[in-house]
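Q: My labmate handed me this sequence with no annotations at all. I'd like to see what the chain might look like in three dimensions before we decide whether it's worth expressing. Could you predict it?
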Amino acid sequence: MVTQYKNLINGEMISTSKMLDVVNPANEEVIGQVPCSGEAELNQAVAAARAAFPAWSKKSIEDRRAVVQAISATIKENSDELFRLLTAEQGKPHAQAQGEIIGASMMAGAQSTLDLDDEINEDSDERLSRTRRVPVGVVGGIVPWNFPVMMAVQKIAPALLSGCTIVLKPSPFTPLTTLRLAELIKDVAPAGVVNIITGEDSLGPLITGHPDIDKITFTGSTATGKKIMEGASKDLKRITLELGGNDASIVLPDANVEKVAEQLFWSSFTNAGQICVAAKRIYIHEDIYDELSTAIAEYAKNVKVGDGAQQGTAVGPIQNKKQYDRVLELVQDAKDNGYKFLVGGDHDPDVPGYYMPITILDNPPEDARIVAEEQFGPVMPLMKFSTEEEVIGRANASEYGLAGAVWTADPDKGVEIAEQLETGTVWVNEFLHLSPFAPFGGHKQSGFGAEYGKEGLLEFTYPQVITVKKDNVPA
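A: Here is what I predict for the chain of 475 residues:
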């Protein structure tokens, strides 16, 4: 029998008459059903969050910190159950699913240590002026399907620590682990402080446009981010948008080919390439291009693609049919244009599941769709470059600006190039590392605002300046 999951609204687990099927991308079988929430359920959740806000916002930050830490501990205590469920609905291999669950616990714990201290602007004989941070209010969080638990927690933790309450919507493709987490934490926070409801994509605009939601925090595509920005503009909601990326990696001629080949592979193919900051374009200096491209391709041939629940699987399926079809379309476009494939390019449509073999292209042109568009799948183009000036220009010639990387034996040179890249995050000789204490956000059409770190916490607050005139107090 298929397990049915429930919404968390005002401290209670609540179902709906209409349910949505959730499919395992490894075999296309229904593995769970979740509520198909609409306007009525949203209104109920928002009303609960609004009612809980006054008392919650007045609690000390130490009291709120304790709740976030309790959520962190609950995730860790139930990690074995949660990571297996995550693999079943998302597709990622067990090791990567476990990494996401433990990472979410650690991220919440780390973020709980942040503070919201007052800042003294003036303390003179004439006046005392200070800036305090006050919570925005009710937050609407919209979460994608590639890292559903991590993205949920990275919205819940700072929202609660700041004194906000939250209504969270998981992706309809991957709601199961988040709803199970909701059940586990329903008594950790006071009723109404955390509300989690599921529904179809049509629920998103209702959240964005709801008059009693004060802030939207969204992770997802740039196209959807633009719609959210438009919807939020009607009542000037605060918004944080972490959007798409077409992230470039630059490999300088002094890089150690043997050492970086494996790292470059996983910078692109972790989670089947379904990471906003995965390497989507890899530029390799012409002096080492042939050697390094061959090394990456040879490594790829020994990586097992399959069901993430099976031992030895390193790359799972694409998470959903819509994204699967889009990746197939990009690969077919590359074939139609005669681009050369080093590895992959073919798939078996008769095998159940949304499997795309690891696919690596050999030096396609800059205007190829496979280069110019964010693939978000197990596909990677490798390209040659000749000069630093040339490759920096090519890397920056994108509407996106989320992340990038530089690989070199000279870290100082790596930093010199990193400082010229138009992205929010740049790694030198590393990939996919995000710190709970460093802000993460995009430039250009990769969004604005920040998550993580003090800056991410401040996104959930307003500054309030209080000024006291000292010499105007009655005797």
